[in-house]
Design a protein that fits this description.
Layout (H helix, E strand, L loop, with lengths): L31 E6 L12 E6 L29
Antiparallel strand pairs: 1-2
């Protein structure tokens, strides 16, 4: 479920030993997604829901590298650069 409350995907019950799932479509950047899963045992008894969340990253991020003094004398020790 996305942070908007919209259901993104429901796989239904899947008979598999594989613990891998891929969303069938793109999720917008910077979206908080609630992920829920539950398992059935060999007697087909359903377990409790387990849930967690993740946030999608920034897809088209551009920036310049932050750099310090690039004229370094290898025979001298320098303090760590401080970036703000």
């Amino acid at each position: 479920m996305a942070d908007s409350g919209e259901l993104l995907w429901d796989s239904g019950k899947v008979k598999s030993c594989t613990m891998h799932a891929t969303l069938p479509h793109d999720v917008p950047p910077k979206t908080k997604v609630l992920w829920k899963v539950r398992l059935w045992d060999e007697s087909d008894k359903v377990g409790e829901w387990a849930e967690a969340f993740f946030e999608t990253g920034i897809n088209h991020w551009q920036a310049k590298w932050i750099t310090g003094n690039d004229h370094v004398n290898s025979k001298r020790r320098y303090p760590v650069d401080c970036f703000r």
